[in-house]
Amino acid sequence: MFRSFASLLTSALLILSFAWTAGAVAAGPPTAKQAEVNGVRLDYVEQGSGSGAPVVLVHGAAHDQRVWEAVREALAQSHRVVTYTQRYFGAAPWLDEGRAFGAATHADDLAKFIASLNAGRPVHLVGWSYGANVATLVALNSPHLVASLVLYEPTLATALPADSPEAKEAAADRAQAFGPAVAASRAGDQDQAIHRMVEALLRLQGGADRQPEPWRAMWRDNARTLPLALSAPAPAVSCDALRGLAKPTLVVFGAETRSSFRLVAERVHECIPGAERVILPGVGHDALHRDPAGFSAAVRAFVSKR
């Protein structure tokens, strides 16, 4: 009897081991591709499979699709995941001097990019920071392309009531956090500006100079975007506009995030009908850097129900 039990236990462990191993490799290696959208070529990476709608991840300012690598790997175990680099971001040469930079351009690019994927169905859009603003515009303007929306700390300050205490607090916090980056950028030192920007965004311990080289390389490549990002008009998305968003939406923010990010995220959550909310413990605006597993788990739990 004991031998029979041991045999059954061994078989069960082998089955579990095989299942775990199969799941671990199911994503396969990432595939680098390009899509031509609105006259520009966008680099993107595709990974995973799955029968559900694809998951498209939209990066924020001062970054590109490389910021999503750990999240993409995790989500690709169960979904087809696409990360792409928005126009002007990354290391690719520009076709102009950045005159079209802005959320409206990036949203139009994203809508065309989604269509180019030939998924045959709407996608799950996941946006971080500025990328969450872009994703929101696509959900509002092209809802047929979107199955669901995950917004991680959007920066839609216009959702806050004008002249409200919350709007004033958020503005003061932004000025305090990003003042050094703005000053360095206006002085023409974009390398210094990008370091101060990511330190404010991610609250990096030890500063940007002490972070792993892949992250520093990404920031160096995106330093040239700072003057454009700082001068581009913010998307004027009001609470009334968000009330018309009829897609399943998850709003995410970190328990340790800056007050400006928290205030906007809470307001966006209030404005979107039926929106869900997740507060990630131990992180702020930096979950992709500090806790990609926790962020991925929150996204997977949400999109798997849709």
UniProtKB/TrEMBL annotation:
Signal peptide: 1-26
Keyword Amino-acid biosynthesis: no
Coiled coil: none
Pfam name, any one: Abhydrolase_6
Source organism, top-level taxon: Bacteria
InterPro entries: AB_hydrolase_1, AB_hydrolase_fold, AB_hydrolase_sf
Gene Ontology MF annotations: hydrolase activity
Domain AB hydrolase-1, chain residue ranges per copy: 55-297
Keywords: Hydrolase, Signal
The keyword Signal is assigned to this record: yes
Protein name: Alpha/beta hydrolase
Annotated organism of origin: Belnapia mucosa
